[in-house]
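Researcher: I'm comparing several assemblies side by side, and this is the next one on my list. It has 718 residues spread over two chains. Same procedure as the others: predict the full complex and return the structure.
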Amino acid sequence: MSARTESDALHARVRRMMRAFPEGRPPESFDALAADLARFQAAHVAGYGRLCAARGVVPSRIARAADAPAVPTDAFKASHVFAFEESGASAAFRTSGTTLGARGVHFFRDLGTYDLGSVTFARGLLLPSARAPTPVLVLGPSPADARDSSLAHMCGLFAVAFGGGETGAGAFFVGQGALDTSGFRARVQHLDAAVPALVLATSFALVHLLDALGGASVPLPAGSRVMQTGGYKGKSREVAPDTLSHDVARAFAIDPRDIVGEYGMTELSSQFWQREAGPGEGRRRVYVEPPWARVVPVSPQTLEPVPEGEAGVARIEDLANVDSAFAVVAQDMVRRVASGFELLGRAPGAAPRGCSIALDEMLSAGAPRPFEGA
Amino acid sequence: MTRGRAERVADVRRLLTAAGVVYADRARLSPDIVRATGLSPEGVELGFASWERDAPSQDLEALVAAAGDARHVHVVLSANVFVAPLRALAIGRAAADAVTVRPSPRDPVLARALVEAAADPAVVLVEDRDIARSTADEIHVYGRTEAVEAVRARAAPGAKVRGHASGMGVAWITAAADLDETAERLCRDVVAFDQRGCLSPRVALVEGGEDRAVWFARALADGLTRWANPVPRGRLHDDEVAEATRWRETMAFAGRVYEGNENVVASTSGPRLAVPPSGRHVLVVAAPTRADAAARLGSLGHVVVTVGSDDPRTVASLAPPHARVSLLGRMQLPPLDGPVDRRG
């Protein structure tokens, strides 16, 4: 079987799992699909074959996701994490960080799986109501203006899928690296007060908007939601999470619980959404995974799972990453709680000691414009 | 300034004499240095062996010329290359009639011992960490880039800040080199201070094809494993272990990894470099031509402090102009002729 045929078959199995999500009955087990993905990637992604060999893992003996070594996100900067030649990619998303000038690249042969999974899961966890269409306003560039941004792609996808096909000036409020505050205000003023809207934004875009509003408000229709994602990356002043949540809720005249956090990254195909979970007074906001992805806290030193309830670096198993790396190790600290996970911030890199240099200092070279590479 | 060049050289020489006294007393100091730095006792002894305790007059005159003039120099020291305070104090003393020194809170042992042994009334230890309160007209700060920037931001208006920030060493192995012998020499440069200094080599460029780079990587890993017996690696902090794990797994994907006893060497011919963390980790990169090596070094230029080679004559056309150049095995032993880091 050719790599392409094998990949097609795996995409089809992952999509079946995604389509089954609303019914809650997955057509096959996570581990069975993960094991087949691991074998496919070990055979066709040269680096993954080497990583398995270095860890003493025989791909044919992988029986469950946990048996497979995970690929550090740095590998997307240092190497080609793709089962095909670059010419076989239909899309390439790039990270905003750099390794001595290099950005990480995530190639996709077929974005259909990414798109189906993103829309399917967000429909259940992000949309303010089942009523369609939902006006979608993006405080970010359009996919056409940021072709290598996975976030712009996802926002564009939601604008089309949830917003009734509205794209272009009516949906995106960042152009040429600048936030169009007056355009955004005008758009909000023309929203139907009876139809909840969805605003998609990065944390730093929200800070820029709040600064531009200078204390004024732009009330959204009742029941609207705001998606907030990402850190600041030096693109705006930093604001404490509770303060930002409070200020955004006030500015949009919404309940703070209608601000929904998103956790995603260029190296993945799936996203994780915040929701309230847990019993009674123990209810808290956690990120939840779709059935085709898992987040496992592992020790940053050994990469072994940490005991239940302890913090670890995120090992993410994303079955939608068919042609790249289904298991990655991110640089974010997480903790499992109440059927989801909490995001605890960036894993501390080795603090540079003395005059010694640290890897992260090299990875963070360059200062992109605030709304580029988001 | 009241002192002439000869007096300044004499003042620096007195610090060298004090270093000799401290060196003679190293058996007493070593346990505290082990605790402060995390180095093994053998690693501390190797560090002492890398300490420049004497220098020819022309080197000291060069140091005095490089030091410039100041009324009062305040020296802010960093941790981990525990013998570094001597050069820092020498530059400060060469420049000024008054020197205040703030040792690293994590690693104050040698700085204190040196100041005490020197008994120079012009050199005074201070513990105040608020740089804004310093009345010095010049501040010499050693440490990570962020620390230098923090001092710059906090220093009193008018105070000149001379920063010596993050950096690293690179090894250049020519086509003429005997790979096994050259790897053995490079081991000494890597092992010293457990690779935490800005002279420590992290990347080795090997002239020739990938086979040659792989041979060298294996020889280096074997050599570092042998070195772990007489000079065991010291204690790594959890975050250092985490970063080492991340780099090792990245390189297992992006290249080949040779894991030895207390060391990891990786080789790659890929276009991108993932610079290894400290703690005896080296990335070996094939450079088919000298133009390739120059391009690699060019991409690293802003962080390269020193280049070691089996043939230093070949380095001039490759290395950034500020870089120190030395024979392999002597990268940690630069002449006492000015700051280690000449990036300015």
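Model: For your comparison table: The mean pLDDT of chain B is 93.
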